[in-house]
Amino acid sequence: MSSPNSSPTLSPSSTPPDSPVSSLRTLSPTPTVLEPSFFVFPDLLSHCPFSLTYHDDGDAIAADSLEWIMSYLPHFTQNKVAALRGLQAGELTAYCFNNCASDHLRVVSDFMNFLFHLDDVSDGHLARDAEGLGNCVMNAFEWPDDYRPVRGQLGGIQIQENSAAKLARDFWSRCIRDCAPAVQQRFKSHMHMFFEAVHQQALYRASDIVPDFDTYVEMRRETSGCKPVFDLIEYSLDMELPDAVMEHPVIVALNDGTNDLVTWSNDLFSYNVEQSRGDTHNMICVFMINDGLSLQQAVDRIGEMCKRTIDTFVENQARVPSWGDCIDRDVKLYVNGLQEWIVGSLHWSFMTTRYFGDNGGVVRATRIVELLSQESTKA
């Protein structure tokens, strides 16, 4: 490890090369042009130097976690149940948290299932609902022992706890049994920022606003949910890193770089489904609308950004300072946990049915993504 004062290689520049930063823009009609029917996916897997590992108890715990979340959602339609099964959130957890105790893996797996459910729920709410949803869920994190009525969705008082809050309370009451105090505090803070960003995202959507690149990157680092997920790396491995470590520029750069890789690549993976329902909260749309790029040009630019981010992560790994043997051991485990997220999320994204249905293997092999028609994914 290098000295604490070594200069970090920061995350890739916010502004991509040859890309003017635009102010906030509203969507406007565009001239009729011949629309593409497909795009070529960047080859990110061959650029990723990390080995893929899976938890020994991953399958069994994934199955248990799936049954857990389904028990809270009895109203789900057959299509939604099928989507939940095809999501494979538990399998993603087993790839990214492959070195922890099985009981901790189960808790983290439950949170991952909850987080994806929360993402789907928040995507379906208007701007005025997103804030209320956050109030209800944060209620469970602040008062895990009992529900306290808060201002809920649509501005009214939420007398009864909704399903999202019940899921959060169930997960959190088990997590805090042996989650270190500093980790709990970071997690709650990051969840609060997550909901603030989701609310802002909803306001943009309601006003048909596409943010500029820098604004989008900062917002996406929050709406991705990666920050609280990365907090659970500490929980999963029974550690509590000091604030001075977590706030060091190299560790911040490693966290931001992992977040960016996961979220930027996710924008590539999720674009097809999102464009089919008219959702523009995606980096591809930011480049197409603000910079006038074609679909393939935007995809290629993001692919190169992802590759540079992986390279920068490797460089920053070599610049991690030393804080003494005891802390260094935990820091190494934590950074390895970030690394597992890079490789695990890339591979999993072709396995889940969330992005390519049953064609993930074909897309992985051919890198051809056939565009869905508008609203073809509506359940």
UniProtKB/TrEMBL annotation:
Biased composition (Low complexity): 1-13
GO biological process, one term: isoprenoid biosynthetic process
Main enzyme class: lyase
Domain of life: Eukaryota
Region of interest called Disordered, as start-end residue ranges on this chain: 1-26
Keyword Lyase: yes
Source species taxonomy: Eukaryota, Fungi, Dikarya, Basidiomycota, Agaricomycotina
Record keywords: Lyase, Magnesium, Metal-binding
Gene3D superfamilies listed in its UniProt record: Farnesyl Diphosphate Synthase
Keyword DNA-binding: no
GO MF terms, alphabetically ordered: metal ion binding; terpene synthase activity
Cofactor(s), names only, from the UniProt record: Mg(2+)
EC numbers, comma separated: 4.2.3.-
SUPFAM superfamilies with a match to the protein in the record: Terpenoid synthases
Species this chain originates from: Russula ochroleuca
A Pfam family this chain is assigned to: Terpene_syn_C_2
Name under which the protein is recorded: Terpene synthase
Alphabetized InterPro entries for the sequence: Isoprenoid_synthase_dom_sf, Terpene_cyclase-like_2
Similarity remark: Belongs to the terpene synthase family.
